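Help! Submission page says 'invalid entity' but I think these are all valid:
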Amino acid sequence: MAERDTIVVVGGGLAAGKAVEGLRDSGYGGHLVLVGDEHHLPYERPPLSKGYLMDQDPLENVFVHPPGWYEEHDVDLRLGTRAEGLDVEAHTLDVGGERIEWHRLLLATGSRPRRLRLADDSGAPVAYLRTIEDSDRIKQTLRPDRRLVVIGGGWIGLEVAAAARTAGCEVTVLEMLDKPLLRVLGPEVADVFVDLHDGRGVDLRTGVSVVGSERRGERAVVTLDDGSSVEADLLVVGVGVEPRVELAEAAGLAVDDGIVVDEHLRTSHPDVFAAGDVANAYHPVLGRHLRVEHWDNAIEQGTVAARTLLGSDESYTRLPYFFTDQYDLGMEYVGNVGPEGYDEVVLRGDVPGRVFTAFWVAKDRVVAGMHVNDWDAIEPVRRIVTAGKVDLSALRDAATPWEGVVG
Ligand SMILES: Cc1cc2nc3c(=O)[nH]c(=O)nc-3n(C[C@H](O)[C@H](O)[C@H](O)COP(=O)(O)OP(=O)(O)OC[C@H]3O[C@@H](n4cnc5c(N)ncnc54)[C@H](O)[C@@H]3O)c2cc1C
């Protein structure tokens, strides 16, 4: 694109931060605007439920680039400003009373926590976790004399539970399904997380629904469908996120569980792209659209979108990857079990001792794999999932080295 051109990146998160970096790295020398409605420079969210929440990582560590980077790279930063009024035919975007004309635009508007009305409407102390301010607020409650109820046994809920237990709080986790993380991991591996939290004294209640919530003094009381109730100083709600599609939707772009993009991350308008949590991208390897709500995807899609915005015809083919840290358990996961589920889980290593690998097999192909506390295994896990078709009997035989499973 020419020097006089303008590219606008909407959203001040990780995908946006990596996209502006990628644009300058690729030699784009034109006007580059980054619009974000938070007041912070683009930052990474994983520490907000881990090291930062536990007061182990300082705030400086969460930012994608140091403060001087944006000026050095001539990025026109518009923080604390919501982008509104996107007109894709006119190629304009309304930002804080100004109309910006653009040639190409990237939507990296991310996602927001799904709200639980019954908790919000009760007037009880309720927190969600998405921003630095959310993390600061929860952090204030992490003291030994405090009690937390976490609604939702997903990644965020369990990480908050781990941080709170580590700080000495009493913690109850309420999960609607029979096990936490059941939809992602299946029952075999979900049990690892049940044991982990049980062993640390978390009161994990599964197969229960919250049917009521009220404020009692400064505290919250939630009522469950089994008739019991739990009291807490703070209710933390972690029941998933929803993509922030409103700008795209109002502009008439195709939206279906996120902004629909092709394998080049291009939306239904040829000059508009989307990346990160908000993008429901066609994945050529998996052969279907997929919206991924993870850190690695924001980094990699932001970087690839920078190149496709500049005219490259490269496709985004990276397999989904995510990680978690809870107490002394670290885990990395690669791949994706499709809507049809899996037929078998192959476990290798010491599952009770929490040093092992797991592979999900569907129709004789490995579709996902992970390791727990076995850090050298991530590369073989990635190779095996990428290959898909491997010698399954060798995989099932824990004595066979990785080279015997995949070349
Ligand atoms: C507490 C927490 C812990 C996490 N831990 C992990 C983890 O351990 N591992 C992992 O893989 N993933 C983790 N994730 C997920 C990961 O952080 C997200 O996938 C990633 O942040 C997505 O980046 P993004 O840039 O797409 O979106 P976001 O980070 O949501 O950023 C989007 C930004 O755009 C802004 N915005 C939206 N609309 C507008 C508008 N109209 N105008 C201006 N600005 C706008 C938003 O306010 C936001 O700042 C975690 C997430 C959270 C919240």
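Support: the input was valid. A stray whitespace character was the problem, and the output above is from the cleaned input. The longest helix spans residues 182-199.
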